[in-house]
Design brief:
With about 350 residues, the chain is an alpha/beta fold. Helices cover about 40% and strands about 15% of the residues. It has one domain: 3-Layer(aba) Sandwich (Rossmann fold), CATH 3.40.50.1820. Strands 1-2-4-3-5-6-7-8 form an eight-stranded mixed beta sheet, sandwiched between helices. The relative contact order is 0.13. It comes from Erythranthe guttata (Yellow monkey flower). This is Serine aminopeptidase S33 domain-containing protein.
């Protein structure tokens, strides 16, 4: 149960609600939205002057209501379209709010969605019954974004963080000629060995997953502690009240393991321009596989940035100077590819 200091009884009750289904998550987001935006973190201080932002809910072809948000420069046409794929313990309405503002202030049109079962989208919280079907939901949503008459002639880029890096790579493999490039921040091409249960336990859990896929039975380490270097920033993750924070569901864990194995075996099929960014001290996703992606991908236009002493959450969990350095590297690369 999450406890935040200084909350009224009413807010604590909202926080304590069962968020397996989307209704309580949406109530919690509305109740905490203004608290989140006042957090003392570099990302929440990104200016909104000159930006137009919009949120929407749309029912997709599978009948699920998907939440999405956009950030666009107020004047003129954006330089390009950036489509964001968020990580496993994340949503597109918390730290990414600041990331998107920074990118939009630099002239880009930024679009984000919560996957089914995550954030403000419908679906059982934190449950991925089939990774490929989820990738299909992402393709469906961003294909509609790119068909907008005001955007269809612009370059388009995938932007994937952590598990979102795996989503972005799978999107590219299914749409090899549809994107002008991808920015991958600590991509989940392989889960770090320390994060995976011992072999025998993995075998037992895999067997149980066939019978009880929705059960929250997979032992896990504190992701925030592993991913966030700055303690103050780590503590602020508690305010992402609609992020999934329980033990992983059996079916979800199995999907993540099989997806990373599949991607690891298909790195040579990655052919689009790539910017890969990874902290050398990342203990959540394996930095060595980012190196392998750089070496094995068939792209002739690729760049790998490895950051000394940096953890997993390069844009959220590091000291401000490192966050700004990573931003500068991303914006410089995007500018060169527009």
């Amino acid at each position: 149960m999450v406890k935040l200091e200084g909350l009224s009884e009413e807010l604590q009750k909202i926080l304590d609600a069962d968020m397996d289904h989307v209704g309580p998550r949406r109530i919690a987001r509305e109740a905490f939205k203004h608290i989140q935006l006042s957090i003392d973190h570099l990302l929440f201080k990104m200016p909104t002057d000159g930006l137009k932002m919009a949120e929407s809910y749309e029912v997709n072809s599978r009948g699920l209501e998907i939440f999405s948000k956009s950030w666009l420069p107020e004047k003129g046409s954006p330089k390009a379209v950036i489509c964001f794929c968020h990580g496993y313990g994340d949503t597109c309405t918390f730290f990414f709010e600041g990331v998107a503002r920074k990118l939009a202030s630099s002239g880009y049109g930024v679009f984000a969605m919560d996957y089914p079962g995550f954030g403000l989208s419908e679906g059982l919280h934190g449950y991925i019954p089939n990774f490929d079907i989820m990738v299909g939901d992402v393709i469906e949503h961003y294909s509609k974004v790119k068909e907008n008459p005001n955007l269809e002639k612009l370059p388009s880029f995938l932007f994937g963080q952590s598990m979102g890096g795996a989503v972005a790579l799978k999107v590219h493999m299914r749409q090899p000629d549809s994107w002008n490039g991808a920015v991958l921040v600590a991509p989940m091409c392989k889960i770090a060995d320390d994060m995976v249960p011992p072999w025998i336990l993995t075998q037992i859990l895999s067997g149980m997953a066939k019978l009880l896929p929705k059960q929250k039975l997979v032992p896990h380490k504190d992701l925030a502690e592993l991913a966030f270097k700055v303690v103050k920033n780590r503590e602020q993750t508690a305010y992402n009240v609609i992020a999934y924070k329980h033990n992983p569901r059996l079916g979800t864990a199995l999907e993540l393991l099989s997806t990373t194995k599949e991607i690891e075996q298909q790195l040579d099929k990655v052919s689009l321009p790539l910017l890969i960014l990874h902290g050398k001290e990342d203990r959540v996703t394996d930095c060595s596989v980012s190196k392998a992606l750089y070496e094995k991908s068939s792209s002739s236009d690729k760049k790998l940035n490895l950051y000394d002493d940096a953890y997993h959450s390069l844009l959220e969990g590091e000291p401000d100077d490192m966050i700004l350095r990573v931003f500068a590297d991303i914006i410089s690369w995007l500018d060169d590819h527009c």
